[in-house]
Each structure stands twice: as structure tokens, then as C-alpha cells.
Write a structure and sequence with these properties.
Largest sheet: none
Number of helices: 13
Shape: flat
Radius of gyration: 22 Å
Number of strands: 0
Helix content: 40-55%
Number of domains: 2
Low-confidence stretches: 1-57, 66-70, 165-171, 445-449
Strand content: under 5%
Distance between the termini: 31 Å
Mean pLDDT: 80
């Protein structure tokens, strides 16, 4: 589910004008935006659409893209490094954060849905017809970006922005929130093809749709487009290929094709899926809505409304804003965090050292362990918080020490699961932790490290 081992073909508050901000460098602009508390809700790092980079290497400070139709208030991305390898690694790491954040937001949205809308939530197979399927495809995109980072000699990157706080990297804040007209408008805009929301080129029906999206976003509350990021990555892959420092073992043409597939999957399949959801025309909505023209027009307390009224940006960290207050739900949510962190640590280890076993165990912790936890929390009026792990996902000095850290993490999760007793979800896999321990314990022993606490 999370990764296919080989190189997979994956296929908010008001915003003030930023026209007067200095554009001397991208980072200066973004830091200014952060200080002024601009909050554009969604997930991408740049605006604008451009063609391939010029053959000559661009200097730092050069704009790599221009604003797209209707985005005159959003600045283009600015190149920071003349060296194409450095600039490509920078953008790939930002792409990894974007894909990770999208994945988590889509998972959270899926977990917020009521049982009657299970067809919208999905069951974990990668596809563009349900939320879990789209989230899995984002996982595959995340995997592709990380495998390419490793292929060109960099390290994998499994970090993401913490929710809802906003570092000086992106000019918007991410949010974990239940599915709604507003959140769907963000996802529509984020995944949209270059001209899909250009009203000057729209049919009357499309123009009405665009007006509804912008109304749901709230004036200028517009996120950026993820396709623009991949355009710049594809151009930089070509530039690195032509450079004297290009890694000789890398099949740049294959990677270009795969990044094109990722871009197309988002700009076509995901956009159409979220458009159907936003307009209430997805068959999984119509089957339950009982003749309502658009289920999102129903009040939130209507039984037919798709999503539970779960918290926005919850956390299982005690004493933090948004802490889950119900004691049992808090303990179950903490177990969910442990499973989430285990998944990311296993994937990081796989990208660094290879081995399909790590992908298989990550899949087990995601599909078999996290889903029952999320559904149980939803029945309690809570939600899986997807808290970020402060120590990172490769905490050891090398692969063997990081696998030892994973053992400790899995044993911690095993102890929490046992302590829950009858409160542990009935469909939680009782052997998931033992199986993961067995899968990596021998390797740690062979490396000369003990496995007992």
C-alpha cells in the first residue's frame, strides 16, 4: 500500500494583499508572509506555471515560474542555488513535505466520514476514486521523491510541517480537519490543472463551479498548485542530466517520465475526484444524500451530512493546545501516533538501505493497525492526530542503529496496546508488533547490538 519497493510509476483566515512585499529573494518573501500571519490553507510551495528552464544555469534569485491565471497576488518561486543538484535536492525535499502533508490531510478527511459514506472513504487500494485511495497514491508519490533523492546521492526526507504551525517555508498553514465544502475547495484548487480554474476560458457551467470554489475558499484564500512544483523538478532533472556533475548511474529519462506521471495523476485524476466530491456528484454521496442536490448544503447536524464534527488539529501530546481530553481516547490516539511513527521510520530505513521487508511491515502498521484505531477514535468523537515525531525518522547513527530505534518504538507500541485491554479496538491486529520485531530483530543482533530494553 505504501510503496511498491521498486521505482513505482504512480502515476484559514483572510489573506491580505502581498503585492507590496519585497521580492528580492524567495526566502525573504516567505519569512515576511509568516510574520504577517498569512494563512493559505492547503499544500504546495509555489505558484505559477512555466516552461522548462533555460539551457544556461540560472543564477540564485531568478524566478523559476510566473503567476498562473487569477494568481496575480502570489509570487513565483525563486531559485536559491545555481548548482542544479543543490536546487533539485531543495525542491525534492519540499515536494516530499508537500506529499506527506497531503497524504495526512486526506487520511484525516477519510477518517472523519460517517459509516454510511464508507465508499467515499475507501479501503486502502491505490486509486483516484476514494479518499484512502488518493492518500495511498500520495504515499507512492512520497516514495518516488525519496527514492530519487537517494538515487542522486542525497538522503530520504520523511519530515513534514507540524500542524497547524507555519514555519518560514510555505506561505500557508496546513490543517487536519473533517471533510467539508471548505476543505474540498482547498483540495480542488491544490490539485487543479494549470487552466482549470481560469474563469476567462471557462464554459458557463465551469464558471459557476469556479465561482463556488473561490467562494468556499473565501476571497483570496487560495493555496498554490502542486503541479507547478513538479514542473520545476522535471526541468531541474533535465538540467542536472546535462551537467558535468550528473550521477552516471541515474536513468534521468525514466525519472522524468515518472515525475510527469505524478504531475498528471494529481492534475487530472485527483482534481476530477475532488471536483465530483465538491459538487456533490460523487456516486458515494448521491447514494446516501436522499435526493439532496448537494449534500454539503445540509446543516452539519443533519444525519445525512457526510462528516463527523471532529476536532481541527488535535494532538495526543499532553498539555499542548488541542489536546484530546477523553482519557481513553487519548491513550488510543497515542497508540495511533506510535503506529504512524513506526510506518515513517520503516520507510526511511527502506529508502536508505533497501529491503522489501520494511515496506511490507510499514504497510501492515498503516493498513492493519492505523485504520482500526482511526475508526475507533471517530466513534468516540475524537480523531487520529498524526503528531510529528521530534527526533526524526532516522534517529540512529547508521541503518543498524536506526533499526534498533525502530525496535524500541515497536515495543513501546506493543506495551501501550496491551495496556488498553478491552479498550483496544476489536479489529486491531494483535500480532502486528510481534511480527515486526521478528522481522528486524535478527539484523540488529547480527550487527552486534542487544535487543532487550
Amino acid at each position: 500500500m505504501l510503496d511498491h519497493g521498486k521505482h513505482a510509476r504512480p502515476k484559514a483566515g483572510a489573506v491580505q494583499s502581498i503585492d507590496g512585499l519585497s521580492n528580492t529573494t524567495r526566502r525573504t518573501f516567505l519569512r515576511t508572509v509568516a510574520v504577517q500571519a498569512v494563512a493559505l490553507p492547503a499544500a504546495s510551495v509555489l505558484a505559477g506555471r512555466s516552461g522548462p528552464l533555460a539551457a544556461a544555469t540560472l543564477s540564485p534569485g531568478t524566478a523559476l515560474s510566473v503567476p498562473r491565471p487569477g494568481d496575480a497576488g502570489i509570487r513565483p518561486i525563486i531559485r536559491e542555488f545555481a548548482d542544479p543538484w543543490l536546487e533539485l535536492v531543495r525542491l525534492l525535499r519540499e515536494a516530499a513535505e508537500v506529499e506527506h502533508a497531503l497524504m495526512v490531510q486526506y487520511l484525516y478527511a477519510a477518517f472523519s466520514l460517517k459509516p454510511a459514506y464508507a465508499a467515499i472513504a475507501g479501503y486502502g487500494a491505490p486509486n483516484a476514486d476514494d479518499l484512502l485511495g488518493v492518500a495511498v497514491q500520495e504515499m507512492q508519490h512520497l516514495g518516488a521523491v525519496n527514492r530519487f533523492l537517494v538515487a542522486i546521492g542525497s538522503c530520504p526526507h520523511l519530515e513534514r510541517q507540524d500542524f497547524p504551525y507555519e514555519p518560514a517555508i510555505y506561505p500557508f498553514a496546513f490543517h487536519l480537519e473533517p471533510l467539508s465544502r471548505h476543505s474540498l475547495a482547498k483540495y480542488v484548487y491544490t490539485e487543479a490543472p494549470p487552466d482549470a480554474l481560469d474563469r476567462t476560458k471557462a464554459s458557463p457551467e465551469d464558471a459557476r463551479f469556479i465561482d463556488e470554489v473561490f467562494a468556499a475558499l473565501g476571497g483570496k484564500r487560495r493555496p498554490n498548485h502542486i503541479g507547478s512544483l513538479y514542473e520545476q523538478i522535471i526541468a531541474l532533472v533535465g538540467e542536472l542530466k546535462q551537467s558535468a556533475s550528473a550521477p552516471k548511474h541515474v536513468d534521468f529519462d525514466r525519472w522524468t517520465a515518472d515525475f510527469e506521471a505524478i504531475k498528471d495523476e494529481g492534475e487530472i485524476d485527483h482534481y476530477l475526484f475532488f471536483r465530483k466530491l465538491f459538487t456533490g456528484r460523487h456516486e458515494g454521496l448521491a447514494a446516501v444524500a436522499g435526493g439532496t442536490a448537494n449534500v454539503w448544503d445540509l446543516p452539519g447536524n443533519d444525519p445525512r451530512y457526510p462528516a463527523f464534527d471532529v476536532a481541527v488539529d488535535p494532538t495526543a501530546f499532553i498539555g499542548h493546545p488541542g489536546q484530546i481530553m477523553d482519557e481513553t481516547a487519548l491513550r488510543i490516539a497515542w497508540l495511533g501516533n506510535l503506529e504512524y511513527w513506526t510506518v515513517l521510520c520503516l520507510l526511511d530505513n527502506h529508502y536508505r538501505d533497501g529491503g522489501d521487508w520494511a515496506v511490507e511491515r510499514a504497510r501492515a502498521h498503516m493498513v492493519d493497525a492505523m485504520l482500526p484505531i482511526a475508526r475507533n477514535l471517530g466513534s468516540r468523537g475524537a480523531a487520529l492526530p498524526f503528531d510529528a515525531l521530534s527526533m526524526g525518522y532516522a534517529p540512529g547513527t547508521d541503518g543498524a542503529m536506526s533499526r534498533l530505534a525502530i525496535l524500541r518504538l515497536v515495543r513501546e507500541a506493543q506495551a501501550v496496546a496491551r495496556s488498553l485491554g478491552p479498550e483496544l479496538p476489536g479489529d486491531f491486529p494483535r500480532d502486528v508488533h510481534a511480527d515486526t520485531i521478528a522481522a528486524i530483530e535478527g539484523d540488529v543482533v547480527l550487527a552486534g547490538f542487544g535487543t532487550r530494553r
